[in-house]
Design a protein that fits this description.
single chain; 39 residues; mainly alpha; 2 helices; flat
């Protein structure tokens, strides 16, 4: 699934995720979206 997350950059993550909990939630959401695209 990693190629489906190829738009992730440190800047994007830093802007969307001010703390660790929001980072985990964001990556979980992106993982779900990638899984649904893959199916």
């Amino acid at each position: 699934y990693c190629y489906l997350l190829n738009d992730l950059t440190p800047e994007l993550v830093d802007g969307k995720c001010p703390d660790y909990a929001s980072l985990r939630e964001y990556l979980r959401q992106r993982g779900r979206e990638a899984y649904m695209q893959k199916r």
